[in-house]
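Q: Protein A?
A:
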Amino acid sequence: MKALRKTLDQLHPHFAKGGKFERLYPLYEAADTFLFSPGEVTSGPSHVRDSLDLKRMMITVAVALGPCGFMALFNTGLQANRAMQSMGLTQIEGWRGAVFALLGLTIDPTSLLSNLVHGALYFVPIFLVANIVGGLWEAAFSVVRKHEINEGFLVTGLLYPLTLPPLIPLWQVAVGISFGVVVGKEVFGGTGKNFLNPALTARAFLFFAYPAQISGDMVWTAVDGYSGATSLSLAATGGVAAVSEQFTWWQSFIGTIPGSMGETSTIACLMGAGLLLVTGVGSWRIMLSMLVGGLVTSSLLYCIGSDTNPMFSLSPAWHFVMGSFAFGLVFMATDPVSAAMTRKGKYIYGFLIGFMSIVVRSLNPAFPEGVMLSILFGNLFAPLIDNYVVQANINRRLARQQR
């Protein structure tokens, strides 16, 4: 490590102001700060001191996503191995099959290693394309604007692949992350200035631009030609009875069901939530209020019931473990940039997302999964909510002064 540190120090003058590669300093700085903690300290007048900077915050979120990443590998491979076994297939086609054979693995849903490797053969390429393409856009804007590459993309590059199905074409992964980074963030000034979550913006773009590759029953299991319905699509057509025939509540809670690669496991999301809450990175107010909003709304619909809408038969407990509700609650709604900032605003913001998630999911048959759209809807209203809270506080203080 000392040799690497020495090499970077020797390269620094070439990228510093006046150096031959001054315009490429953001690239050097990104590599330096990724490998080592910055050695500079703030000097001058008094300033706010806090051990939590952007880099530490983003790394904490990345670590919290670890359980979801593990489930993305394991469950993607598990669903593919189960499907291939049921279809009587013994070999994976193409380069993935060559890698699988090279490692001496076989199609075995009971093998942890077989499931992890099979899942990695689909998840890793998507992850690499998303991070390489998105990272290039980040670097390009940093070089043009002459500022450092922010660590904000570290989390976007993790969240975005976890929200995708395993069979999505890689070129669509690249197009989606390009839209999310450029239109969802950089055109507004970059990290800290965007009012939409970039990962969700990218996912929403793919949902509306290429619905055939992001929805339906054919995209959730990494086996061409295999139809595997998600719990939400089953619920939309047959209610809780149809879901219970295919999956148990416990399977849904663990996450061993078809769905987006990193969103199926509620328990993995809860593990991440624990770390975010202990470290203070995630807002417990937003998590709690979104949970309450979802539970209250789903309870009302469950009590009302419906002879024509099967979604009304889902209890609040089922809603909590289906789709991306838990994933959105823990990692998407709590985005510190696009979420509400005021304390009261966070309660309103979270409740609004929870309410809208169940409303869209249950009352609109065209969108059985409403969490993504609801969080983006909440992002749009977050500035208005904060402004309302601040103005209400100002009006109360003025009223007290006039007494």
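Q: Protein B?
A:
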Amino acid sequence: MRIIRKYINSAKPHFIGEGKYNKWFPLFDAFENLFFSTSGKTKNPIHVRDGLDIQKLMVTVWLATFPAMFFGMYNIGNQSLDYLNEINTLNTGDWHHYLISFVGYDNTSFFNKLWFGAVYFLPIYAVVFIVAIAWETLFASIRKHEINEGAFVTTVLFALSCPPDIPLWQAAMGITFGIVIGKEIFGGTGKNFLNPALTGRAFIYFAYPTQLSGDKVWISGLSDNLPEGFSGATPLGVAAEQGIPGLTSSFNWWDAFIGNIPGSIGETSVIAIFIGLLILLITKVASYRIVLGTLAGMILMSSFLNIVGSDSNPMFLVPWYWHLVIGGFAFGLVFMATEPVSGSGTNLGRWIYGLVIGVMVVLIRVINPAFPEGMMLAILFANLLAPVIDHVVVSSNIKKRKRVLSNE
């Protein structure tokens, strides 16, 4: 590390002040921050001091996604290699399979399953990361400030929310929309009122709904000449069509909790996601109030609909513990709903914000037959309400204090 530090110190004068490469300072700063924390500290006494700066916060969130990321890659292989092993298709013309052929199609090997998933996930992540950093660099250069670490978290969350067979150009378009429209045009990290990763995900969903509907998901990833059965229904799709009888006959709850089900890359394993939640709660990056509020809203609304029932809509009878483990509920709860910039900032507001998300996700999943997921739209809807929620809470607190002071 001393060698890297020495090299950075020798090159730094060329990128700051009147240095000949000063317009490339954002890229240099991003490279430096990969290895070292900033030495700049808040000095003014009017600021609240905290040992957790934005760089440490974003790195913590990034590391918290690792359990879901690695399990997601393993699950892609686990869901697929059984099918691939039944037919000999080493040379399908799909570039993924040329890479996979290096280790073969052995469906008993943990490494093979992880490698299979990595071949599909890592290109998505690489494209998303490169495109996002390019946009961040452009805006940072124009505004003459450093590249913010928020982009690193946005890229991994967006990539993990995608299906493993998403075309790379669609992934590039989605992250472009999320970074530019969801964040940068409002001033960058800290000024966005929508979650950038979800904004990009919503864009590609509405732009290409047949490919990202949420009711069917890629399983084998092979060429189009394979049987249609290799594109399988997700648990949410089964629940929407057949209700609890179809859901329990097709999937086991424990398998869904562990993550042995089809779905987007990072959303399947509740255990892996909750390991990330534990990290975020211990480090106080995530608010437990939002987490508990969202869980409470989901449990209350789903239980209420269970009691109401429906003769025509089988989703009414799906209990809360199934809502917890299917679709993107757990992933959105842990990594999207708790995002501090676009969520509520007051303690009471966070409870209300979480309740809104929990109630909305069930309403969208159950009442709206055209959209079987719901968590993405529920969080974006709550993002829009967050300023109003905080305004009402703050105004209420001010009125209470005035009444107390007037009685003294």
